[in-house]
């Protein structure tokens, strides 16, 4: 990138989070760059949601369902195309971005309209830098820290950088081109992870449905999708070998409850095991919830609802007791109650391709899919003797280790390219790197569909109901 270097001259900015600025850049309060838009009564517009990494996008909702939602949410605000919307409680995490179309956001959001000197895409990049999000924390207010809100009156007092408008446009064009390259890299790596995961699932699927001895005689299982199983195996309903509990513990803290650590949806989705050294969210739970849902050795946790059926029934295993760690909302907890099954084998059996496919078929919903407790209880697994379960688990671990290592290396590469992207954006939007001489080349093709790869596989999309809308 020969044209990307420091600016020729700088001046002090007066801001601790960016000490120097290019000489012709300004610092203005947001109230000089944006106006406040509070418009309601547009029920036919699509609902918008905020992604923590890529900003605002249209929520995928079936029309009838959306109208039912809107009948209950007449306070939804209009965001015109190009307006910036941010979640009052979560802008400090990056819940901010420009509206791609005219749409509606919940009362938990503030909508600001850019004046002519402000490119909303440039400010979307700036507002999601780590330095600016720390400033958001300073200007937010509330009774407790995790419920702090950034109101319009505070947002408009915040200082922002103001490059000349043509320079803002150039910065946006440059960063979108770099995002396109990074998105293609991430997609290639994700495709590799998908192939490795499919190979791993084939290994597991064969082991937990046919065992390790290829010479053993088989018998019909009586279940169409399960097919034949070794003749000395049982075929068991999960409800006969495990206690199934669904959790309703939310992520918020309440003064009258006990502090706990939460094993949440993402922890299960992204990890085979839940262990004490994981960085788990802190929240609170009632005494009854703690008694029912504290994790114990041998527990199996699975995702019970999601926006796509393919993400339902994903399991994780708890190898040792975790006092103070509670199973969170959107999850089911399966606790073996019989000496006929090992928790680790149950985890492997539920994670097999055949069982997963059944959960996908059973999941119901329109905009969000869910497994019922009845569906989980009546799921079927092939059950070898406990000693054979132990042998199968050891064999799976050995066979899958090289694949797990390859997946971990690939995920680390994705993490590193994301860190590079964050540094690049911060350097460019704060004027530490000069991209005025950059010109797009033949490979600098920006495709909005391809840019979707920048979103995390299970990225946290901010809830419409976050906050009370008092802005």
Q: What would you say this structure looks like, in words?
A:
This protein has helices at 30-33, 63-72, 120-127, 130-139, 152-155, 165-210, 265-270, 287-293, 343-350, 353-362, 373-377, 386-429, 448-451; strands at 10-12, 20-22, 26-29, 34-37, 48-51, 55-58, 77-79, 84-87, 96-98, 103-105, 109-114, 159-162, 218-220, 228-230, 234-237, 242-246, 258-263, 281-285, 294-295, 300-303, 305-306, 315-317, 322-327, 331-336, 364-365, 369-370, 380-383. By secondary structure, the protein is an alpha+beta fold. A four-stranded antiparallel sheet has the order 4-11-8-9. A four-stranded antiparallel sheet has the order 16-24-20-22.
What is the CATH architecture descriptor of the largest domain?
Answer: Alpha-Beta Complex
The CATH class of the largest domain is identified as Alpha Beta
C-alpha termini separation: 43 Å
Tell me the strand percentage band: 15-25%
Number of helices: 13
Poorly predicted parts: 62-68, 458-471
Keywords, please?
4-stranded antiparallel beta sheet, 13 helices, alpha+beta, Adenine-n6-DNA-methyltransferase TaqI, Chain A, domain 2, 471 residues, 2 domains, 27 strands
Short summary:
The protein contains 13 helices and 27 strands. The chain has helices spanning 30-33, 63-72, 120-127, 130-139, 152-155, 165-210, 265-270, 287-293, 343-350, 353-362, 373-377, 386-429, 448-451; strands spanning 10-12, 20-22, 26-29, 34-37, 48-51, 55-58, 77-79, 84-87, 96-98, 103-105, 109-114, 159-162, 218-220, 228-230, 234-237, 242-246, 258-263, 281-285, 294-295, 300-303, 305-306, 315-317, 322-327, 331-336, 364-365, 369-370, 380-383.
